[in-house]
What does this fold into?
Amino acid sequence: MSQKTIWKIQYINLCINEFSRKHRLTPQMAYNYLCAYNGLAFLDECYEAEHTDSLMNTLDTLKMICARNGGTL
It folds into this structure.
C-alpha cells in the first residue's frame, strides 16, 4: 500500500471520528450516515483538495453534502 493511500485512509478516519464527536454520534453511526448519504464518497473523490482545508470546513461541507443527499442531521 502506498504512503498516499495510508494518509488518505487516516484522513478519512479522522473525519469520521470528528464528525461523530461534532454531531454526538458513535463512530459507527457517523460512518453509516456518511456512507449512506455520500459523505465518504465525497471525501474519497475530493481528498486532494479537502485535506488542505481546515477540518471544521470539511466537517461543515460533509454535513452539507449529506443534506443534499437526504441526510437529516
Remarks:
- The chain has one domain: 3-68.
- The CA atoms of residues 5 and 31 lie 19 Å apart.
- The helical segments are 3-22, 27-36, 39-45, 47-50, 55-68.
- The mean pLDDT is 97.
